[in-house]
Amino acid sequence: MGSRAMIKWSKQITSSQVEQLIRAEKDIQKAILIFDSATAEYTNGFRHDQKTFGVMISRLVSVNQFRSAEDVLDRMKEEKCKTTEDIFLSICRAYGRVHRPLDAIRVFHKMKEFQCEPTPKSYITVFSILVDENQLKVALRFYRHMREVGIPPTVASLNVLVKALCKNSGTMDSALRIFREMPNHGCTPDSYTYGTLINGLCRLGKIGEAQELFLEMETTGCSPTVVTYTSLIHGLCRSKNLNEAMRLFEEMKRKGIDPNVFTYSSLMDGLCKGGRSSQAMELLEMMVGKRHAPNMITYSTLIHGLCKEGKLQEALEILDRMKLQGLKPDAGLYGKIINGFCDICRFQEAANFLDEMVLGGISPNRLTWSLHVRIHNMVVQGLCTGSDLNRAFQLYLSMRTRGISIDAKTFDSLVKCFCKKGDLHKVARIVDEMVIDGCVPDEGTWSAVVGGFWGRRKVQEAAELVQAELMGDFVEPGIGI
């Protein structure tokens, strides 16, 4: 590095100066520069210490520069600077955050090499990362290791264990057993324990058991959090028990517990699926009144529900509100609206939304491919029945250029319409393209083509020509080169 980039330090450079500068520097490259230029002062007797090393490591992991962070950690060992548990945990947590749980374990095991004895806090932190990342086998092995090295069970560690066991239907009973045994270990279950169990039971559809625990929780003086209420409301909605879900919603508001976006979304989803979308609309107003910004899921839920009940006008209003909030509708939402218009035979509007979707840059991906194919074909067929042939043909062409597969039924609709109109150039072209696509015209399509040509009195030869040419495409003798 050129000396220009270096910082001029005073002779009395202190580690707290260096630490404050690194902390205050927004740009990570410049922060590294400060750290390195302080290292250059080693000749003048300065040494990095726990504080400067620690802050550099936490800055590096905050921008996912793990290799560099671990290099700094190794330097601490070389320079015989004592490491702290918190420095290790900051690296472990960062690995957890980017879904690399096995690296978190690796760094945890490094503590021993650094003569840094992990306390229960370290064990619980790593155990918790493994559970959050669904590494359940490894997590349970790690828990057994924890107990073997004599880490006593605490409410915190048992809560993580219960959470791990609640993730699979096969281990739900073990979760409940441990919960019942907690008091024997001098650990009283808290709101978090109850919440985890209630959430697990609801996910497995055991709503009755979840409700019993919820009532028991109140008698033990554990206050349910917004998360617990939401789990139960979500579970009740999924099992179509809407009235009980609404009762809980009112109860939590009465107790001064603010519903969050998930609470509203779960209820709206339940109401929409239960054919009560107008009630869901009321919830949207309440939610906005409480300054909760609806998210994609909230809007999708409502639009799906409204379209299902044929309330297209309301669905379009919601779509507009969503756009005003700066959220972009996705293929699924456009699909619902386009479907809705096709259901009531308003194919022009369906085509308008199809255009808007294409202009908005929403193109098919692996997941939405079949949806795109379905709605495009549906709209072209609809436009043919609605005798808007030009638009049907434009859309057909745009499908071809964008590589969206065309159904036999779509080819058939187009051929029949253009035959009726007597536009035989287009008929020939479409049948040609149909054959190129490997889609064999069926009897109905053929008779329409032939009928169209007969009708024009170019009679037999033209029809036979087309048929011969097309048949030739299928029965060409297999001559190799």
From TrEMBL:
PROSITE patterns: PPR. Transmembrane segments: none annotated. Keywords: Repeat. One of its GO terms (molecular function) is mRNA binding. The keyword Nuclease does not apply. The keyword Repeat applies. PPR repeats lie at residues 49-83, 84-118, 119-153, 154-189, 190-224, 225-259, 260-294, 295-329, 330-364, 407-441. InterPro entries: Mito_RNA-Proc/Resp (IPR051240), PPR_rpt (IPR002885), TPR-like_helical_dom_sf (IPR011990). Pfam families: PPR (PF01535), PPR_1 (PF12854), PPR_2 (PF13041). Belongs to the PPR family. P subfamily. NCBIfam families: PPR. This is Pentatricopeptide repeat-containing protein. It comes from Liquidambar formosana (Formosan gum). The lineage of its organism: Eukaryota, Viridiplantae, Streptophyta, Embryophyta, Tracheophyta.
